Every structure is written in structure tokens, then in C-alpha cells.
Amino acid sequence: MRISADRDRCIGAGMCVLTAADLFDQDEEEGLVLVRDGAPGADREKDVLRAARLCPSGALSVTRDA
Amino acid sequence: MTTAPLPELPEMPTARPAGRPFAPPEELAAVRPLARIPLADGSPGWLVTGFAAARAVTSDPRFSNRMELQRLVLPRAGMPDRMPPAPPGMFLQTDPPEHTRYRRLLAGRFTVRRMRLLTEGVERTVAEHLDAMERAGGTADLVAAYAQPIPALVICEILGVPTEDHDRFQENTRAFNDPAATAEEMGRAMQELAGYLRDLVNAKRAAPTDDILSELTDSDLTEEELVNVATLLLGAGLDTTANMIALGTYALLRHPDQLAVMRDDPEAVDGGVEELMRYLSIAHTGQRAALEDVELEGHMVKEGDIVALSMAAANRDPERFPDPDRLDLRREAPGHIGFGHGVHQCLGQQLARVEMRAAFPALLRRFPDLRLAVPEEEVPLRSDSDIYGVDRLPVAWGPEGAGR
How many helices (DSSP H) and strands (DSSP E) are in chain B? Predict the structure, then answer.
């Protein structure tokens, strides 16, 4: 599973950090998403998909490993 | 695209069902996900009541939030049907890229991490107000004693309103919450507040302190923008959180099993706050204007059309939330749109969470037998307000008849 974040789309709402603070963070300046772990294990799938679904600006995309 | 006719309502419904103060107007559930309604001027508009459709509209850049493109959905005394563009700094009623500039300047000040650092201070403020309630005896108006002052003090702290100005500031903002205030009084309060904020902005520019306004004086914002941004932050952060605390407490008092969950299970607090946000949806409605023809739920919304949104109805869409009319704090309800959705989703939501997560359990643990001090029908509901809530919430605790 790979997470990519589009910081141009991000509005810094923090929903990803709220959902999984070990995988996401926000930068101090603009509050935009920082991916701390872009390739988490399969056991984190639920949180990752939830973070992507909750993102208000559609800034997160998740691709499953082939 | 379907051509099946949509249900039509005679106007945007606003009346809550009798005896069910937390339920959205009953007409809304019957017209999910999309209906036609006449706007205030009689021209045809759209009404979104479905969860998926509300998310679709609020996250689609083809639906604009620009003030000058909106038209009144409901008639409003003293409000023209069309408004001028939002003044500089009032970025809620703008679209990207104008909106993006302000949002970026502010989002870093309201991150999850920064807001969590405030937890201890918020808990201290909460405890001080509980102490004061306890000292005053076994009854209080929860709105005046608890729900209003806590968010006000917190936002003062964050913005950088000096302690010695807190009283003046609270007095200034009280008029906004006063249901009896006339348009003239509101206007005067607004001007006084803007004047106060202008002085404050200039003071921060001269002598910066550790707060958001001081940080913003370091940006390229003009004085007018700064004052408007500060006004917006206050307007968005005071009344909303205050009403959530008061109405949320009222809802818990009417659902004792759920009150017990909030009081007794620390693990349930975070999820419980989300459920209260969903269930109460105090920012109950919104609207957007179509910038071009857009297909929505199989129907063609034309360029210029106004789409009204019922967040309250969307948050009770059974397709998204099973048994939606049940308040269930243990429900996994993340993803409600109580803070909105899309680029305008609440900037201060992480602060609101910190405040609510502190305020509900502390209140209920301090006064485990908290109860309404008046019959339910005497609780004054803010039925006409953009932000739903209660004007007063008389509560009592301790032995029956004590402290009266």
C-alpha cells in the first residue's frame, strides 16, 4: 500500500492526522500534510483508507501493492 | 441523466418537529437526496439532503461559495437578495485561489498538534468554570456559566486578546449571541468589535506577543484584511462551540444512557464528540452557486443555479449512518459533515474538538446528577439561527431543592 499526498490540494484540515497521527503530520508553516510513512503495512489499511476518505480536499491517494 | 421529476417543497423547511428538538425538519427526510425548492425571490433552486450529494457539492470546485454569486434561500429581514463580494479577509465567502491564500496563512496555526498543546490550558479553564458553578450553588444557566465563556476565553488566548480586555471583549461578543438584539444593536456590536480588533491589530504590530494575531501581522495582510480575518475567526469560533457545548449537554440530558457513556467511559469521549457533531449538526445549512452546468444525482444543475444544502439532513442519511436518528456515542461516526466538507471545511475544527473533549466529560463528572431545572418545553431553542442551539439551559445538580 502506498500513500501519496497532493500538497497543492491540501487545505490543512488535519483529518488525516486525526485519523492516524503515526502516518501523517502537518507542517508548522501552512499546516499542509506531511506523510510520515508512505508505505505502511497491510494492517493499517483501514486507517489509511479512512484518512483518504475523510480528507475534505481529496488530497490523499492510496494505491495497493500489485 | 434521468428525467424523472424531483420532489418539490414549497420552501426551505426550518421548523423542527414538535417535541424533538434535535431532529431536522421532518420534510427533509422525505426528499433525499435531492429536491427542488423556490428561493426567497421565488426563482427555482435546489436542495441537497443526501450525504453523498452534500459531499459531492461541497468538494466540487464548480460549486462556488462566493458571496456575490449567492441568492437568499430564505427571506431575511434587512438582508438584500444579492450581496456584494466578500470584503478582503472574509475568505469563507470566496473560492480558490483567493481562499487558498488566507487558508494557508491560517491552517498552520490550527493544526492537530498545535491545538492539542492547548488541551491542558482548556482543561484548566473548564475546571475554573466548574469551580465557579459549584461555589454559586446547585443551579446555573449552563450557557452563561459554561458554554459561552469557555470558547470565548480560549479564542481570546489564541488570538492574543490581553486578559485585562476579556470583559470588554465578552461584552462585545455577547450581543451576537443575544436573541433579543435588534439589527441596530447587532450592527453597533459589530462595529465596536471591529474597532476593538483594529486597535488590537495595531498594538500587536507595535509589540508582538505569542499569539495568532501577532504572527499574522508579520504576513503581507493589510490592516483591513487582518481585522476581517480576526472577525471571521471570532464569529466562527465563539457561537459554534458554545452552542455545541450547550445543545450537546441538553441532548445528553435527554438521553441518560448516552450521558453515562460520556461521563464514565474516557475511551468513548472522542467518538462521542463526533457523534454529537453528527447528531446535532448545529451548522445545519449551507449553499453554493453553480459556476457551470453540473450533473448532480442524475439532474442538470444549470450555471448560476443556487444549491441549498441541509447538513443536518445529510448527517442523518440512513445510507451513510444506519439508524441515523439514534444518538449513539459508540457509533463509529467519523466522516460526518458537521464541520462541512471540501476546501471550506472548518478551519478551527481541531480546536473545537479539544474544547468539546474537555468540556463534556468534565461537566458530567463534576455534576454526575446534572439535570434540567425547567420543564423541557421551557428550554428556549434557537430555531431561527444559522447556528442551532439553546439560548439558555437552566440546569441543577446536587440534592433536590438545594441552592435555590
Answer: 15, 10
Please tell me the distance in Å from A44's CA to the nearest CA on chain B.
17
- Chain B residues within an 8 Å CB radius of A50: 334-335
| Cβ proximity of B338 and B277 under 8 Å | yes
The predicted-structure confidence for A17-32, as pLDDT tens digits, reads as follows 999 999 999 999 999 9
pLDDT digits (tens, 9 = 90+) for B292-337: 999 999 999 999 999 999 999 999 999 999 999 999 999 987 899 9
Cα–chain center distance at A59: 8
Q: Is the ipTM of this complex over 0.90?
A: yes
Distance, in angstroms, between B211 CA and closest chain A CA?
14
Nearest-by-Cβ selection for A14 from B104, B112, B342? B112
Whether residue B33 is preceded by a cis peptide bond, meaning omega within 30 degrees of 0, is yes
Contact B350 A12 (CB under 8 A): no
| Calpha distance B23→B26 (Å, rounded) | 8
| Fold type of domain A2-56 | Alpha-Beta Plaits (3.30.70)
Mutation for B interface: A30, A36, A46, A60, most B CBs within 10 A: A30
Three-state SS sequence of B185-239: HHHHHHHHHHHHHHHHHHHHHHCCCCCHHHHHHCCCCCHHHHHHHHHHHHHHHCH
Give the closest-approach CA distance of A14 to chain B in angstroms. Answer: 6
Average pLDDT over residues B164-181: 71
Task: Mutation target for B interface from A22, A47, A57: give the one with most B CBs within 10 A.
Answer: A57
Task: For residue B1, name the pLDDT band (cuts at 50, 70, 90).
Answer: low
